[in-house]
Amino acid sequence: MAETAPAAVTQSFLTIEVGDERFTLPATQVAEVIRPPVVTRVPLGPSSLVGVANLRGVVMPVVSLHSLFGRGERPIANARVVVVDQGTPIGLVIDRVASFGSAGASDDNGAPARLIDLDALLSRDFGNAGRRVQPQRVPEMTEPKPGTTASRDEVALVCFAVAGQDFALPLGSVQEIVTLPPSVAAVPQAEVVMLGIMPLREHLLPLVSLRGILGLRAGGHEDAKSRVVVARMGNALVGLVTNGMKEILRVRSGEIEPVPAILTRGAAEAKIQGIYRLEEGRRLVAVLSTDNLFRDQDLTEYVASQKEKTREMSSPDSSSDDEEQFIVFQLEGEEYGLPIASVDEVVRVPETLSRLPKAPVFIEGVMNLRGRVVPVIDQRRRFNLEGRGERRRERIIVVTIDKMQAGFVVDSVSEVLKIPGRQLRPTPDLAADGSQIIDRIANIDTEERMILLLNPRELLDKAEKDLLAAMGDGHLARPAP
Asked: 430 vs 64, 125, 190, 336, CA distance in Å?
């Protein structure tokens, strides 16, 4: 037990209550006492870890003293959080503060309050808190993907919905994909396709209706699923308002078919550069041409005028070198991110998966991804989360790890987000075993968001890697192509 009998000292102490017992902490260790902050849960962390919170720009682990003392869990809604300084702030969830002053307070049974040896107490679940190796960026993939030709013959497509139809842009022309804000500043006397401007970090982004550009049926964009595809138009950036992000695909360039000539006449000329077939032709994705999407003179002038107002933002070359792009996805209401450089594709969950006999419970099965056998891992089970997401919104994020390819089922994929380095925080030590599946944390103060950034190399532990290696060697049954 990391508790000792109180000693007669002259310094001040904070006396706290945890259940029906009282404990003391030296006042020198206490930075402040706050109400419970908004907490982001951390998967696979110790049972005592409630999650992480934003404390004035600093990522703070929040730990339950009830759990550390082996007294089970308590809801934190009516609790208090004592912030202690361990080199970095740590929040201790308690029931209430009893007093502040000299030691010697007693609990309801007359027993003296016990002094907490905080270092010893935290070391049970968190090891040497504060020892942290600075994570490295995931390098860009330069080698071919398994089972494909050289990567230069592939093109990555970002797919999204517009008026019930599927469209795509090359990933290289997409800066990021963000949520449409609740309110947009309208521009007086603008054309119907010009929706206005929105703030994007420290800058302003001109917004254009992709539905209007493509001449599709009229309709509103104010939908919870609406997304803004931030695309490059020459040296400027423009926000294309869509009805929602769908997938990221890597396809052979030869698989994109030319557009039938009858469809490339008039106003639609050259806006669509090709058609990609999915699901044996049941779905068609129209690949848009970024060079010719904005051929309308008025629209070009409008975007150019906004470019003058946001000169810093409009040039791709002006982006900070320390910005990184991430795929943002959801699991049980929490946001996670993976470096876009580590993601091969984002695809729908197929109607059926081939089961593997005697496979671990987190392996849902394997799928055939254009001739490649890809094991599919239920990330909810991997993170010990209850239930499952809404099947129609679930997606599989396909990642290559140590030359092995695997797909991770997530509840939904919402954004491609470019995050400045100043908003990326190192992860506090969250486990005694040194596992670092949470690589960093994106702490976005302006949006009150905290995104847990996963280390793709740590998504699979040794047992899982052995399983995938066995599949790669042909030791497990494979589905028919």
From this structure: 13, 8, 52, 16
